[in-house]
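[job 0412] stage=fold_complex status=start
inputs:
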Amino acid sequence: MLKVEDLCIKIHDRKSTETVVKDVDLEMNRGDILGIVGESGSGKTMTALAIAGLLSRHDMEKSGHITFEGINLLECNRKVLRKLQGYEISMIFQEPLNSLNPIIKVGKQVEESLKIHTTIEKAERKERAIQALRDVELDNPEAVYESYPHELSGGMRQRAMIAAAMISQPRLLIADEPTTALDVTIQAQIVELLKKINKERGTAILFISHDLSLVNTLCERVLVMKDGLVVESGNCSDIFNDPKEEYTKGLIAAIPKNPFDIA
Amino acid sequence: MGNVLEVRNLTVEFKKNKKPFYAVNDVSFDVKEGEILGLAGESGCGKSTLSRAILGIQKKGVTGSVKHYYKRPQMVFQDPAGSLNPAKTIEFILKEPITVRGNFSKEEKDRRVREMLKMVDLDEELLTRYPNELSGGQRQRICIAASLMQQPRFLIADEPVSALDVTVQSQILDLLRRLHKELNLSILFISHDLRVIFNLCDRVMVMKSGRIVEMGSKEDVYFNPQDEYTKTLMDAARTKYVSK
Amino acid sequence: MDRTKKLKFIIGLSITGLIALMTIIGIVKTPYDPCAMDGAAKLAGISLKHPFGCDQFGRDILSRVLVGVRETMLISACVVFIGVFFGTVLGTITGYFGGWLDEILMRLNDAVLAFPSVLLALVVIGLYGSGRYQLIAALGIAFVPSFARIVRGEVLKIRNLDYIQAVRLYGASHLRIIVVHILPNLKTVLLSSIIIGFNNAVLAEAGMSYLGMGVAPPAPSLGRMLSEAQAYIFSNPLTAIFPGIVIVIMILGFSLLGDTVKKN
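[job 0412] stage=fold_complex status=done
writing structure:
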């Protein structure tokens, strides 16, 4: 379904050119959950943004291929890309407070993608939005529909974001550190929700995180990135139990020991 | 073993829409000499307000008693970018604590700063740099070094590793552990990461909505929690951390 | 984007340099005595002897403009200095200590701010007569509140940062925290507001002397040259054009410079 080959992203800054993503290859089939792990500055977010088609700044140069359902996202024209964006490919971000518009009701933002991409009537859109909010296990979805982002807690906002991303039944959901800003109890719930969505609807999830243990609970396969390069990739449990690269070993060793594994 | 800190019935009250709101609610505990006491809790539970009230940075609405057995307790903050003055060199920042307190000659100050840099594993060439020229890990080392310049016996570390990458996190935690041993430093370690607390601390407190809901040895709190909230917290941690 | 900014900076800097040069010439030596009247050269046009022409009394306009620029620059500099100095002191104290002192001083500040600066200047001049020093005092007072407000906001932000808390825990005195740790961090904010303030001061000075409340005649000033030239604007526009252009260029130079400093 999604194939990324030799993806390179260069940022031109006045004099110097910095390559933030170097020769990244990845492949995802329907229903896959792929994790990308790396520390800050490893290029994991850049890769995700490129796949979502959100990198089109002038001072940036992209090369390689990103093929989604047979369409090359880097070369197709804007119209085709717009059709995919937010409809076939959705994205959720780290900080749900910044990714929701503070002056628009949550419900309106949830149904936004239907408004842009379909001709569904207003009443039905609302119904679908409330259903989507119910699907992400929000209590009292009608009330959430009518509220503004600041009236919701962090966990509720992230659920609403997921509802907005999932309302168009996308084939690919890109989640960029979706739980980093949340508390542990909420984190666990969001991870469970993502698992459920993947299982019930078959949505492929590209999960980006710096938290290896989290990736390990959610993903089947994982890419480890460092300085824009994929240093190791493969089955999650293989990499966890038997890392080949020094960098991956260091990363795994750095995870604080889990009290519950000892027990 | 004596105590370095005794907190009794500490309450911090804020006015929120004219209704009283207790950020810290009737909290009592001791920090024993030479121990690392962990304080776990989710965002907004009052951890940071508690630490500020203990150090006297927060004064408004504070009632109850805080007794320090040693002078000048220090604090290490979460965001190493915000806890260093961007307009000063590292040398100035490290000297500031002993410029403000104590009568040291220039040579003595130089010597102490160099010693401290060695203690936190940093190179002397950093002295002439400015905070924005350092990496996050280096900055946090500088923060720790600065907080130790006055040779405190008690240190509050408020989420000192939360803003750092995992590999850097583990280095900073190792450093804290080593300093704790070498200097017989007592630490109140605040974090939302239950693994970090388990690995570093001797005793643990769990805080929720301004109250300490559970306190005890880490084994008891983690594996035999009594309080409902602690139970949900530990369950969540279990789902999150344990591999499939 | 970067290029336009650079261009703005270069143009702004060269204009400001030119103004500075004019100020220095104005201080050192002008081609003619700016007040010397030459009956034969009344309303003379552009010539080698008088490159900017002469006014209705036969005074050399170039010399008068140079001295006028000097006056404007010196007055503006004093006004901005008063504004920045008292504004910083006031803003730092209120921002740092807060409480009732902040409440009182900031209300007072608002009151002055709400008062049109021209009106304030009129009051001062009405009480103490017109002249250079009265003008400096009047405009200086009018400039304090805006600087105080900017500084106060910045200090409020900085004093809650962790590094100030850390220094407080070392046991540093308030004075040391303010002078050593807070003030150096106001540099960038102050620099851009000083340039903008200078701009406003130039305009205000020109406006006040246009209304006849600046330096006493016959000493030249750009504003009064404009107002005197009003009568001859159609018969002899040179008398108005040169002082006018100089005012515009001054403002332009400072604005361009202020623009580039602000964003950084």
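[job 0412] summary: Chain C has ten helices and no strands.
[job 0412] exit 0
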